[in-house]
Design goal:
Blueprint: H1 3-37, E1 43-48, H2 51-61, E2 75-81, H3 84-97, E3 99-100, E4 106-107, E5 122-128, E6 131-141, H4 142-154, H5 164-204, H6 214-222, H7 227-234, E7 240-242, H8 249-255, H9 261-283, E8 290-292, H10 295-307, H11 311-323, H12 328-340
Parallel strand pairs: 2-6, 7-8
Antiparallel strand pairs: 1-2, 3-5, 4-5, 5-6
Helix pairs in contact: 1-2, 5-6, 9-10, 10-11, 11-12
Length: 348
């Protein structure tokens, strides 16, 4: 081994505690920055090159390096994202935190080889004013990371000759994974566009144009569609309204045949009076001073079921959806059938 290589190894050993401390600090800095930016990543990995790894590198390429500062990957970090477009977002954040050595950085995503999927990382060589040595930061997707690890295990990129049929199979798999990576990002973009459209339609009141699903129902709940009914019920006892999650009612409204948010809006318009009558019977003669925000939609659905001939079975179905199937839901249905039998809406 050349004298310069031995000097580099000695410098490495002398500076190793600093590298380990800097690894801890920079990983913490990146984690904090991503959290603050609201960019959710799969993982942030880090490592300091081992003595054995550095020694092997110097035996092969020792003539390239005059000092430890010439080696850019003693300290390495890897940012693993869920989506391909988040790699660029991660890169933008890294560029704000570090000084990037553009001459020695490389965007391997621009490679065109059919077998390069797992190696399409974005590699930045970076420096920071707090540390005298450069470091490498890799950014790749979770699928690219998984593929690279599988490649390593199979020897696909190790230089060992692999039979052609296995090489072809691996290349096909790489292509499929690359397609999946791109599709995940495309679907996320389209879902974001759909959610924005739904929010706009809900805000504008065009509810009949909005199909009923988890996203649209969540947006619907944000405009507090049951507040008027709950407020009217609460005035009977001057009760407070305790907010509870209403997303479980998505399954109920679907079970009652609602296809759009407009169908729920029509139900509120047409059955709120019946729901109020039912609530009056339930709590009007009590001293209850707190009601759950679910009381309005619950009685709305019960009134709808009773007015449309669903009877006991329909009410039990409602509570089976809300609470899980149980015989006690039948007892609740019997009680509600008895309560509702004398109410005006049942005779209209």
């Amino acid at each position: 081994m050349e004298t310069s290589a031995k000097a580099i190894l000695k410098e490495y050993m002398d500076k190793l505690p600093q590298f380990l401390e800097q690894e801890r600090i920079l990983k913490q800095v990146l984690t904090s920055a991503f959290n603050k930016a609201g960019l959710h990543v799969a993982a942030i990995e880090s490592r300091v090159k081992s003595y054995e790894s550095l020694e092997g590198k110097l035996r092969i390429k020792g003539e390239k390096y005059n000092s430890l500062a010439d080696i850019t990957d003693i300290l390495g970090l890897r940012i693993i994202t869920y989506y391909t477009d988040d790699v660029d977002k991660a890169a933008s954040l890294v560029e704000r935190l570090f000084t990037v050595d553009w001459e020695n950085s490389v965007d391997k995503r621009k490679l065109l080889e059919t077998d390069s999927f797992g190696y399409l990382s974005l590699h930045y060589i970076c420096s920071t004013t707090e540390f005298p040595y450069r470091l490498e930061i890799q950014m790749r997707t979770l699928l690219q990371h998984a593929w690279a690890n599988m490649d390593h295990d199979t020897g696909y990129k190790s230089g060992v000759e692999i039979p052609g049929r296995y090489m072809r199979s691996m290349s096909r798999m790489a292509g499929l994974l690359e397609l999946v990576d791109e599709e995940f990002s495309r679907i996320r973009v389209e879902l974001s566009d759909y959610r924005r459209k739904v929010q706009s339609l809900v805000a504008s009141g065009n509810l009949s144009e909005v199909p009923l699903d988890g996203d649209s129902f969540k947006s619907f709940l944000e405009i507090k569609p049951f507040n008027a009914l709950n407020g009217r019920i609460a005035t009977m006892n001057q009760a407070e309204i305790q907010e509870v999650p209403l997303m479980p009612y998505l399954a109920v409204f679907k079970g009652l045949g609602c296809k759009s948010l407009g169908d729920i809006a029509d139900m509120i318009k047409n059955y709120s009076e019946a729901a109020f009558q039912l609530a009056c019977y339930q709590i009007g003669l009590t001293d209850l001073d707190i009601i759950a925000s679910s009381l309005g939609p619950q009685d709305l659905c019960i009134a709808y079921i009773l007015k449309n001939g669903g009877g006991r079975a329909g009410i039990k179905y409602l509570f089976d959806l809300l609470n899980g199937p149980a015989e006690s839901n039948g007892d609740i249905a019997d009680m509600l059938m008895e309560q509702a039998s004398s109410l005006p809406f049942m005779n209209q």
